[in-house]
Amino acid sequence: MLDAAYEAGIRYVDAARSYGRAEEFLASWLGARALAPDALTVGSKWGYRYTGAWSMSASVHETKDHTLAMFREQMPQTTALLGTHLDLYQVHSATLESGVLDDHAVLRALAELRDSGVAVGLTVSGPRQADAVRHALELGVDGVNPFSTVQATWNVLEPSVGPALEQARARGWGVLVKEALANGRLTDHGEGAARRALEMVATRHGVSIDQVALAAALGQPWADVVLSGAVTRSQLQSNLGALELALTEQDWDELASVSEAAADYWSRRGALPWR
Fold this sequence. Notes:
Layout lengths: L1 H6 L4 E3 L7 H11 L8 E6 L1 E3 L11 E3 L3 H15 L3 E6 L12 H12 L3 E5 L5 H9 L11 E5 L8 H9 L3 E5 L13 H14 L3 H10 L6 E2 L6 H8 L8 H8 L5 H9 L5
Parallel strand pairs: 1-2, 2-5, 5-6, 6-7, 7-8, 8-9
Antiparallel strand pairs: 3-4
Helix pairs in contact: 5-6, 7-8
């Protein structure tokens, strides 16, 4: 999959300490292909520990820990694998409730990492992700904000974070979009009104549903990177078709009609099976 993505021109790869052995797989591929650090941009994340033990039925798949001790533990683990290939290190799913955005010890450590040459970002999730983004924008450690990127969930079902991401982009931050396919709800596996609206747009253009959903994310003026999440070559090839799709005003109107209240969207997301 990494070979296929690289051959297709994709130059950003996203991993995390809690994505099983993702960093190990990525490090192995980088080494096997002898890719120079500047050949692509590598982002990873700290703040969660993988606990699923390779079982889809595990009661707990990952646990959150945004303490300084966790950062001090996971940062060396990441750099031991990715070394100079690591370009971006993100707080994994920063929320107002976790307190990480107000932990000055953590923020100072992140500022030191940024000063060493690794960009620092945060990912956000949940119905209050826009609040977390705006809070992060106003942070300062000794007068300097350690963050320069944000990764957020945006899709046609859950567009509420859009204005906050626009603010971040205007501030000069890089913006990465995750879950543009709403964890499969905006693909052929989806159902209901959203599926019907995307099918109408897809049929009009002669494309697939996933391409419409991804084109909507790519069409946001503040979006720098839209993550694919494809796990097969055929999925990747389909996703890449979104780069060639230009949505019309009629398309945008139809897609806007399927948005859900943020609380409803995240409640439904939380009920989706882990797979």
